[in-house]
Design a protein that fits this description.
With 344 residues, this protein is α/β, with parallel strands linked by helices. The protein folds into two domains: 2-6 and 44-245, Rossmann fold, CATH 3.40.50.300; 251-316, 2-Layer Sandwich (Alpha-Beta Plaits), CATH 3.30.70.1110. The chain is built from 13 helices and 13 strands. It has helices spanning 21-30, 63-70, 92-95, 115-125, 130-144, 159-171, 189-206, 217-223, 241-248, 264-270, 296-306, 319-329, 332-343, and strands at 2-17, 33-48, 52-57, 78-83, 99-103, 177-181, 209-213, 226-231, 234-240, 252-258, 277-282, 285-290, 309-316. The strands form three sheets. It has a six-stranded mixed β-sheet, sandwiched between helices. Strands 11-12-10-13 form a four-stranded antiparallel β-sheet, with helices on one face. Strands 2-1-4 form a three-stranded antiparallel β-sheet, with helices on one face. β6 (177-181), α7 and β7 (209-213) form a beta-alpha-beta unit.
């Protein structure tokens, strides 16, 4: 069964046009002019139950607008969507019991009361029985190590502590789908790692479907097997993260540190017949560029078998660089075409 089913989804906004100058501002008081802006442009995708999917794009690409339609906050201009079999903006009361939402820059907790009091209020909102609430809360508090925070006012929590509490708040009613919009924004690496580990464990043990929107591509690499990439309201890539790396990364670099001076001529002779390239950094250090069409193990075996090696490091193209190249080209297909032209 599909957790999320989207077909030809569109969202238009009516935006006021502000005229220039004092006279323009005066005219706007009496007669306003508007223009139509299409934020989401007829997108379609499906997410099966139990999948963790990354939904990425630059600012203004339409990510948050899509999330708001999927969670029932906004009504689509056109198209069809179902989440857990419900139309979000029509079946809202039944629908919200099956989803959890975390917006990294907004809070669902009450600022001036204790965390546990916020949780109790949310229990009543979602109509969770006291027995189920206690069982679920104890489990989540233990897994996210929140025992010392429950009686603190939310305003006295650090950002990392608050985000862990936000996660618990979104999961108290045991939703089958979790929407995360920038859940690790502004967090240090330790807290990010804790949250990623928790989400992976929850997905593995409970089968929770997760749609993750983020600018931090390390979140995507750590959690997601699939990526949907959005640009100017349109999907420009929908597929596996490993496929994205394999097809559009430049390849890998291997840095060799030798025990003694090794000439470039000798290095080229060792890898003769392979479509690779050497770069000498100094007398004892050189880098070997290996495109994806060539086996890294074969290239390494030739060098190791013919030279005195002291150290080896392998560098892979960063996901950030791949995504940036695709955005600059306008589509994954265009990025692939540029890559082929550059390599020929």
């Amino acid at each position: 069964m599909l957790a999320i089913d989207v077909k030809d989804l569109r969202k238009d906004f009516r935006v006021q046009k502000n005229r220039e100058g004092l006279s323009g501002a005066f005219k706007d008081l009496f007669k306003r002019e508007y223009r139509e802006v299409r934020a989401v442009k007829d997108i379609s995708f499906q997410i099966p139950q139990g999948e963790i999917c990354g939904y990425i794009g630059e600012n203004g690409a339409g990510k948050s607008t899509t999330i708001k339609m999927l969670t029932g906050i906004l009504v689509p201009t056109a198209g069809q969507l179902k989440v857990n079999g419900f139309v979000p903006f029509k079946d809202r009361e039944k629908f919200v019991n099956g989803i959890g939402v975390v917006f990294g820059q907004r809070s669902q907790l009450w600022w001036d009361i204790g965390v546990i009091e916020s949780f109790q209020l949310l229990r009543k909102v979602y109509r969770v029985s006291e027995q189920d609430f206690r069982k679920r809360l104890d489990n989540l508090v233990e897994r996210l190590q929140l025992g010392d925070l429950l009686n603190r006012p939310v305003r006295k929590l650090s950002l990392g502590q608050r985000m862990r509490c936000e996660l618990v708040a979104s999961l108290l009613h045991n939703p089958s789908i979790l929407f995360l919009d920038e859940p690790t924004i502004g967090l240090d690496i330790v807290v990010k790692t804790e949250i990623r580990d928790f989400l992976m464990q929850m997905n593995r043990e409970e089968g929770t479907t997760i749609l993750l929107t983020t600018h931090d591509l390390q979140d995507i690499e750590a959690l997601c097997s699939r990526v949907i990439m959005l640009d100017d309201g349109r999907i420009i890539y929908d597929g596996g993260l490993e496929e994205l790396k394999t097809k559009w990364s430049k390849g890998r670099e291997i840095q060799f540190q030798f025990g003694a001076h090794t000439s470039i001529g000798k290095l080229k002779a060792l890898t003769e017949g392979l479509d690779v390239a050497w770069t000498v950094e100094n007398e004892v250090t050189a880098k070997l560029f290996v495109p994806h069409a060539v086996s890294v193990s074969d290239a390494m075996a030739r060098v190791v078998g013919g030279a005195d090696i002291r150290d080896i490091k392998i560098f892979e193209t960063n996901t950030d660089e791949i995504v940036r190249a695709i955005y600059q080209s306008g589509s994954a297909e265009a990025a692939a075409a540029k890559k082929e032209i550059a390599s020929s």
